[in-house]
């Protein structure tokens, strides 16, 4: 670290500073500095912290000005999130030091899992040339582009009816409100099968999948739905979460995952699932539904979303670095 700076693990008292840091990081690209403080608290000192290793850079005032997180997403996958105060004179040196540290942590995670290879995955905002330069110097390469889309919700959405031949229902729950295991396993299987032909597909175990989604403070079991065709054949699923209130104090819904079995594509399953999400959001008094989609989706999902009223708010890119445990790949 540069003179006058040190790195340490973030603590609960840092949450307010980290909210400001992340808000300042996104504002030039999204037009808003609103950040879910509850989500950051979970990353620092809640369930989400259990699968993350992280550091903050502090000066003499001990206030975090840079923050890097390495998320042990699954075997062979480590998500990296770097947030840097661009007004810090030494920020270039801190960023490179933090990306070196992130690589060390990802390799340690891979070794702990007993896998021989892993992929680092960082997602800067498209057009952020400074962060792109840091990533390039750290050995990353740009591989994909993602569209972050939003759609307004109106009272008219509440009357949605699924296409003929398609039925959609929420996952079943027991008397105590907990979900039925069989339905959760169907959701997991549907998503695994739906994304088999995606460029970055990898298997995530059922326990990892459920734990990761539960880490989100916006997680709700009653935001998981399964679609069926031919009466009882599972054909697709959608998993949503609650978006924190916007500037007007109104919550939204976020589509974490939507997947349709390849054998059921073209039958209106995706539209039926999304229509269900719109209706649910309208009934709950929410004002928007957001999602993220691959700009090069093999199913042209972005075109479907545009046809349903979604618009692109901002864009991010995926930058990868592939590693072998103990030996960096060329």
TrEMBL record:
Residues annotated as domain N-acetyltransferase: 185-330
Stored SUPFAM superfamilies: Acyl-CoA N-acyltransferases (Nat) (SSF55729)
Keywords, alphabetical: Acyltransferase, Transferase
Keyword Transferase: yes
GO MF annotation: an example: acyltransferase activity, transferring groups other than amino-acyl groups
Protein name: GNAT family N-acetyltransferase
